[in-house]
Every structure is written in C-alpha cells, then in structure tokens.
Write a structure and sequence with these properties.
Blueprint (H helix, E strand, L loop, with lengths): L18 E9 L3 H18 L3 E7 L6 H11 L3 E6 L5 H11 L2 E6 L11 H9 L4 E5 L7 H19 L11 E4 H4 L12 H7 L4 E5 L15 H19 L3 H28 L10 H31 L8 E5 L2
Helix pairs in contact: 1-2, 5-8, 9-10
Length: 331
Amino acid sequence: MDKLSSKNYLADGQTDSATDVSIILPIHNEAENINLLYQETKDVLNALGESYEIICVEDGSQDSSLEILKKLSSFDTSLKVIVFKHNFGQTAALSAGISAAQGAVIIPMDADGQNDPRDIPHFLEKIAAGASVVSGWRKHRRDKLFSRVIPSKIANWLIGFITGVKIHDYGCTMKAYRREIIQGVSLYGEMHRFIAAYAAWHGGRVEEIVVNHRPRGSGQTHYGISRTFKVLLDLVVIIFLSKYINRPMHFFGGIGFISFFLGLAAGTASVALKLFHIRDLVATPLPTFSALLLIVGIQLIVLGIIAEMIMRVYYEAQDKKPYQIKAKINF
C-alpha cells in the first residue's frame, strides 16, 4: 500500500500530529498472545511507512503479560506501556490508551489475536478518504453461536434502532478514529462501543468495513452473555448524556409535568364522578392513581432541579479519569 500522508488524517484547522497512527491494545491475561500479535502489528505498520506507536494498557493481569511487555518495550521505543494498579476493565484501558495517544488516527484492537493487524491499511484508506470513524464488521465471526453471536446480533439491532446509526457490529473493538473525534470523550462502563454513534450525532462520517475475525489464539474469553445486558444499560445512559446532559430538567421535568397533569386529570375526573353522583370516590381507582401520579410528577420535577445543579458542578469540577495509573514506560 502506498504511504498515506498524515495530513489526510486531520480535520480542517488541526495541526499536524507528530505520529500518524496509534494502535491501542488493552491487555488482561494475554501472555500467550502478546508476542505474536506484537510482531504481526509491527510488520504491518513497518510496511505502511507511517510513523506509529503501539500503546499497550496492562489491565491488572495475573499472568506474565507485564513482564513480556517490559521486555519488548526495552528494545522498542515505539511500544509504550501503561500499567494499571489493578483490573479496571476494557473501557478504562481503552480510555487510558486513547488519552495518551499522539497519533492522527487511533485504532484500538483486541489483544487476543482475533483482530487481524493486516486490516489496518484498509481502515487507514477509509480515514484518508474522509471518514471520521471506520467500524470493523466481523461478518464471519469465530465465536460461540448462542453465547456470543446471537446476543451480539440482537444488541446491534437494538443499538442501531435506538441510536439511528446503522452499523452491523458495534461490539467490534477494532475501529479507526480521527484523533479529534475521540480524544476528550469520557468513556465509562461499556461506552467505547457507542463512539461511532456519538460521532454520527455530532456530524461525523461513519463508515464500515468487513474485517478478518480469527479464532482466539490462546487463553479464554473474558466476556459472556451477561455483557450484552450491561451494554444495553449503558446505551440508555449514553442517549441521556448525548441529548440531555446540558438540560436534564427537560428530561426529568418533561416526564414530571406529564405525570403531574395526568394526576390532576385523574383527580378532577374522580371529583366530577362524585359530584354528579355517578360513582363514589371509594368505588373508583382514580383517586389512588391521581395521588400516585401527582407525587411521581413532583418528585421528577425536583429530581430535574437537582440534576441541573449536579450538571453545573460536573462542568466546573476537576478533570478526573476513571482509572489509576501505576507506571508508564517509554513516555
């Protein structure tokens, strides 16, 4: 592949980045896979002729992953290592790597060997052609059907339906982001999956490519069907944060007013039934519904006021990260 100018990776108004490509590898108990993945990634990046860095975030592994990374980084300064104090999870590891990345293009990958580094040039071609985010699609997945593939398909359909951003595989870690799109985005829970939707909501161009999904090299997967439910819960949060973070009163207050006025309507109806001798108050559930809806409405309006106060504190608070770094290597 011909060398791609890093200027193609930058948005208008952005200054040139010192590094063209940053590869992010969250690592947790992947000692048996690190050496092969490292060599494969190096071979691909060297062939591209781009300047690059490989950032490994060691996420509290219990095996020899850290020792292997220390050895590799001792003779390769392009390999940078962030060491967490203990296990914080994949999203925190990706967030730490993204925050430290210097590349104009940031490409996270799984460290289990299932993502193929030979797909990296295809991502860069799409970015150079103007895409803000390029999402990998594991069209032919090498995972268990009932515990991973089917739940993933259901989750992807729901996410696409709710967000309005139709891509096939939100769960694929291997994506490419322009630096200005992803840096500064706070990631919690499983929210790294929704960056493509976030970018589309803010006018970014999202594209998708089919990637080679390989069988896991060694070790066991850290994820199961329970992760699908966590992703869906995070989806509710990300929609709220994207649309109502600056105006929580519109969300809680809007629902609160609807509940309050329904309560008034139910109360008025129950009184009217009594006055016209149609039905006694004790003979209809309307008074109960009225009291319940009025109370819920008032509570939601008050919650909206509290959320407005918290939102202002949130914007004025210090910039805190959802992780703690024990050490950095080659930074």
